[in-house]
Specification:
about 290 residues; 6 strands; about 40% helix; 9 helices; single chain; globular; Glutaredoxin; alpha+beta
Amino acid sequence: MEDEEKISFKETIEKAKQGDGDEVSVEEKLPLGRRDRFLPASIIIAAVLIGGSVLFAALYRPGASTPSGGAGNAGAPAANGGAAQAPSAAVATAPAPGSRDVILGNASAPATVIEYGDYQCPFCVRFYEQVQPLVIQNYVNAGKAKLVFRDFPFLDSAEITSSSVGESHAAGAAAECAKDENQFWPYHDALYAAKAADEAKGGGEDDGFFNRALFLKIAGQLSMNTTAFASCIDSGKYTATVNADYTAAMNAGVNSTPMTFVNGKEVTDALGQSVGANGTAVLAAIAAAIK
């Protein structure tokens, strides 16, 4: 019976890609690397709460629909389905930019947009392709907003140990190494562009796509010092940093990707549910912050 009580993570990913979700979420009580196991009782309770529907939002919190037609049509804010979460009065808040955050835009801009993401997350790819360009075009380039990205690498399939580093953590550590050469944002964008291409070919999470060869290839394409970069990733220089980012995000109340904040306040719908990859909601939050 145990096998019947498991839901394949990759099947869930595929369903989510085909559905209307805006985020991937993580059950805080599930240890990293156990995301493909659902508690049967939780599934039953969730099913009762939504009238018998079968849910997979212990990992996903579907949000607004996303009609086709480009970045500007990321959909209107809508209540998330899934784990039948009641509106929360204690909305997550993001700490102000710190010394390791790389600010894109004017550091004195009145609006601070912070995205917590995972480089393997399909909805984070959506944020990169659809939402980020609008934020940059309409607000960052105009000096009205600054953009910060923080790692929340929860999609790794294995527990993170000194001898086992999952792909999300490895990608995050590679981006940290790029910071040493002041190439964080170009490297960040290249990672997401590469993952978008992998997804277009049928790739998924933990499929071996994020690896040393790719990281070095991107570094070379950006004319980085590949010798120094290789030494950085091979030494595991920033493994602990990425782990600390994960812990800090959890402590801040982050439980989905992408989770987006404007001036420290989580972008949510009317029910208090996070809609971080919803371009309409993110842009509206920025507009309200700079009034």
